[in-house]
Every structure is written in C-alpha cells, then in structure tokens.
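Let us practice reading a record.
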Amino acid sequence: MTASESTAEFSAVTLDDGDTLHVCQDGPREAPALLLVHGSASSVRSWDALVPLLTRNGARAHRVVRVDLLGHGRSDKPDDGSYAIPDQARRVGEVLDRLEVGRAVVVGHSSGGVTATALAERRPELVSALVLVNTGPGLGAFIGPVAQGPAGPVRWPPDDEQIRRLASTGFSRPGYRVPDALLDEVRAMTAHSFAATMRGTLAYMSERALPERLAVLGKPLLVLFGAEDRRWRSSSAADYRVVPDARVELLAGLGHSPILEDPPQVAGPLLDFAALHG
C-alpha cells in the first residue's frame, strides 16, 4: 500500500469524563489533517460522499478525522451528560489529543460549525483554519421551521414521515427524497440527546453571534453557503465578512446540505483553502 492510498480506520475513544466517542479516520496518516464536524441529528456518515475527494487527491490528499459528537451516531448518548457546545468542543479537542493530531483545518457543517467555532475558542492551538458550510451566523438569520419547538418532535422515536418532514428543508429541492441513512441517524438518537443538542446550540448562539466570536480569534476563515438554503438566509453569509480576510462563497443551486447535494462543489474551494492554511 502506498502512502497516498486511503485507509479507513474506526475506533472508540473513551475520554477522561468517561464518555466514549466513535471516531473515523481516512487517508494517509502523515498528510495534513482535516477535522470534519457534523451537524445536529447527523453523524460521521454525512461526510461519506465528500471524504474520497479529500483523501485521494494526489499531492493534496489529507488525513481526514471525523467524530460522532456525544448523543449522535455510535457515540454515547447519556441522559446525564452535558450537550452544551463548549463541552462538545472540549471532547473533540481531547479526541485530537488522543490521536496525536497537533493541528488541523476544522470543517463544520450546519451546527457542526458552531462546535468548530467553540473548538477554536477553547483550543486555538489545534485549529489552523476554519471552514463553515451552511452555518448560520446568528439566530436572526434562521428561517425555520423549528420542528415543534426546540425539543423537536413530540413523539419519540418519530416515524419516517415525521423525520422526512424535519429533514426536508436540509435540501434545495422541495420534495427531495431524504436518504434512508439520514432517517437512521435521527432514530439512533434519544429524545433527550436530540432536545439537549438543540438547546445547547441555541444557548451558544444566543450568547454571541459567530462572526463576532470569530473576528477576535485571528483564524483564516472560509464560508461556503448553499444559495438556496431553506433553513438559513443565504444572504446572511455576508455577516462573516466582519472577520478579517474571511472568504465567503455562495454555491449556486444548492441548499443547506451541499456536502450531500454536490460534494465536488464543496471539495474544490475547501482543498484550495486547506492548501494555503493546512
């Protein structure tokens, strides 16, 4: 096997607080690191279509690290755990320490960008640069709908139709057939982890908008935003321009989930940016 070939590795990392997180690594281990952080009610699987474009790209191949945040995917889902964003960021930082990843370009999709921002605040030495994909800058940019309030669906587990309605605004085309794998990710959560995750994100964004947080960190920033986002006003991406030298790109014809709708359109600018700042 050559150094440029991709080798997927799955592991369970038990942290100092006793929580166990599911971790996936792809790509040559000696390559520059990219950390991918998924959004709410999702998991490492949301990046599956993008990862090959990041790990099998010749001289631009990367070591890609993905983590199921607490409450998601195959990670623990404790009823007594903290789902606050700073705690999620602390756990991600500890995973990087365990993997001996000293520095990475951190990429967050949707609310994963909130955790990425908190990681840069908490552990700036780990973050060489940030890429936010359809991460709303502040709650004023949200266009909804909120799924029956911040706690989410009243019934748990929700049925397939409820989940499809919840997920439908994540794509640019009304009537888009939500992949079955995404239904599985929601069902894998507990009612508590789902509601607590949503509350954690709302609390963090209510305290201070993301552009204001990022402007003082001095980290290179790339913002990619589907122009047809049905959850956040795409025009709000311009709010990130208060961050010195931030690069903001609207992705024509794409919605809230460009990493699923058109992975190559995300990979191109992401790789260009990582080459400068990785």
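A brief commentary: Residues 1-6, 147-153 have pLDDT under 50 and may be disordered.
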